[in-house]
Amino acid sequence: MTDLQAVVVVATYRRPDHMRTCLQHLAAQTLKPARTIVVDASADDLTRAVVADFEGVEYRRNDHGAGTLATSRAIGIEGVDADIVAFIDDDAYAFPEWLEELLRPYDDPTVGAVGGRALNGQPDEADEGIGQIGLLLPDGRLTGYFAADPGRVVETDHMLGANMSYRLDAARRVGGVHDFYPGTCLREDADMPLRLRRDGWRVVFAPRAVVRHVAGQYAKGVRFDSRYRYYGARNHVVLLATALGHRDPIFRRYLATAMRTAGRDLRSAVVALKQPGWRAKGRGAAGGCRRAAIGVGGTAAGVVASVRAVRAQARAS
Amino acid sequence: MRLHAYVLAGDPAWIRQGIGSFYGLVDRIVVSYDADGLSWSGDPLSTYESLDRIAAADPDGKVVLHPGRFSNPDLMAMLAETAQRQDALDAASEGADWVLQLDTDEVVTDSGELRASIDAAEAHAASALAYPARVLYARADSGRFLETCGRFWSTQSSYPGPVAVRAGTTLSHARQAAGVPTYRVDVSPWNTDPARPPTTRVHRVIARDQALLHLSWVRTEAQMAEKRAVSGHARDRDWDRELDRWRRRMRHPFLTAAGAPLTRKPFERYRVTALPELANLDP
Predict the structure, then answer these.
(1) Which of A132, A140, A253 is nearest residue B124 as measured by Cβ atoms?
(2) For residue A124, how far is the Cα from the chain centroid?
(3) I need a surface site. Which of A308, B71, B173, B197 has the fewest CB within 10 A?
(4) Does position B156 have pLDDT exceeding 90, yes or no?
């Protein structure tokens, strides 16, 4: 068993019921964390009341409200002195060996970050995507597949925020947690791993560090709606610019990839016009055009936001 | 990591260059051949000429001969090919972590990059490596070849199946291994294989010059006549027409290349490529 000290941080927003279950699972860990810290961005005190029921769990507030998940993470590690910080979502329920397995790969001093599996309850999810878990592709896209079980620890480029950890001193050396990811907060979890990779650390996926991710309701909207897509496109550009730089070929390729994707969406709109029935034609064409517009709009907004983010990053360093 | 390879002996064209290009990379090469010297469809093969050439390309004694009976005229050639490849792969898997499966007319141009790609596939827990091959169609004149390409003469890759697989893999069709987690390398960040959707993911990018060279149709007239008889596609092609085109294109390489943007079939677009290192080599 490792002698590294780990702190567990749970960032939450208006999910007190999920929070209770999450803390119950953390209390049953085979390896106890040195500290468990809940950072709550809700305006009410429901979560505070839940946390009060768990002895030794610290409660911190994030007064910036919804859409500031990365800020919650930053508040969570403020003033914390530990070797490793592990993050788990309020709607992710850890298996008993979760923390123990998450810390195991840190025996290798070159490992800077470790992510684990998040089971979504989908059929075949354990097999899907093995060989391409958590990759940054040469065209700038990211792969996921964090429910896959490759059977051993594998190299990755990024992790899933619901189940990830990193060396605290390494994270502080690369500039700490950035919050350039508003809206749905998509991509904020990939920011630190990519910067650690750029700094020479290895990022790995430990398939035996498992959580059950029940996907609680969103603060606003639903998963995969237009808002989700818009912020996905916007924040992805910001991620690549801040983690890799505007001059990096992957950043430039991603802009080309985004335009290709928009082109394909527009083509799908044209193809839809060949379908029988006016209703199918209209829905298909409108859907393709909407997806293309969201993709282009989000990417353009991301380029503007990335310039501001890179400047802010430079000022901070 | 222990890397073995298997090859099928029967086609002597380019065998020395093919095996020589990955010889330093592997610990053992299993050579599978039909003991009766017959093709999958029952035609005589140049098996013993192939074995002689292989022996000449084996200074360190890495080659292990693995004869068997693979000819079966009653079976589709592709099924017989799959059976022979599986037999060879199983033999090559003994004591290996990964097995290279290259044809004897495929040349590795950068063995360091191929090895690095296999290492990357291993690190990401993939069980197969799809590695791009540039297909050379015909020799035009000294040092120049006709190469299959994209509509506007861009580099186009071909993937007949994974170039390397984890030991013990089950093949589904010829060299292909359906359903096996595959790590995919290409010469561009966006897929260049016309047989796959444009959204196909590329996991690693290599330079054009690091891709394999597939010299499948770069042959003499006599070798093409033999290929016509023994190929896995022997019975599903109009070979008279194909060979007429091949000769005409070889005679008029620039005219052939000029027609690429107007050609509808993506595997029949060609460009003229200079490869001086192959200029003085005989197939």
Answers:
(1) A132
(2) 22
(3) B197
(4) yes
Give A229's DSSP letter.
H
- The DSSP bridge pattern shows strands B3-8 and A111-119 to be unpaired
pLDDT in tens, A8-58: 999 999 999 999 999 999 999 999 999 999 999 999 999 999 999 999 999
Q: Does A255 touch chain B (CB under 8 A)?
A: no
ipTM: 0.87
C-beta separation of A132 from B124 below 8 A: yes
Interchain contact A253–B (C-beta under 8 A): yes
Q: How far is CA B34 from the centre of its chain?
A: 19
Q: In this structure, what DSSP letter does residue B25 have?
A: G
Encode B269-281: b = buried (16+ Cβ within 10 Å), e = exposed: bbbbbebeebeee
Q: Please report residues of A whose CB lies closer than 8 A to that of B204.
A: 138
Q: Exposed, middle or buried by CB within 10 Å (0-12, 13-18, 19+), for A234?
A: buried
Q: What b/e sequence results for A161-172 when a residue is b if at least 16 CB atoms lie within 10 Å of its CB, and e otherwise?
A: bbbbbbbbebbe
Q: How many contacts, defined by CB atoms under 8 Å, are there between A and B?
A: 55
Query: Residue B204 in contact with residue B125, Cβ under 8 Å?
Result: no
Distance (Å, whole) CA A164 – CA A86:
6
DSSP state of B24: G
- A267 min Cα distance to partner chain B (Å): 13
CA-CA-CA-CA torsion for A296, A310, A83, A187, nearest 10 degrees?
-10
List the structure tokens of B113. Answer: 């990059």
Minimal CA–CA distance to B85: which of B106, B107, B63, B100? B100
Looking at residue B41, its pLDDT comes to 84
Task: Kindly list the distances between the CA atom of residue A148 and the CA atoms of B26, B95, B118, in Å, as whole numbers in the listed order.
Answer: 31, 28, 21
Query: What is the number of alpha carbons within 13 Å of residue A117 lying toward its C-beta?
Result: 27
How distant is the Cα of B131 from the closest Cα of chain A, in angstroms?
A: 15
> How would you class B175 by CB atoms within 10 Å of its CB: exposed for 0-12, middle for 13-18, buried for 19 or more?
buried
- For the entire predicted model, the pTM comes to 0.91
Q: pLDDT by residue (tens digit) across B51-97?
A: 999 999 999 999 999 999 999 888 888 899 999 999 999 999 999 99
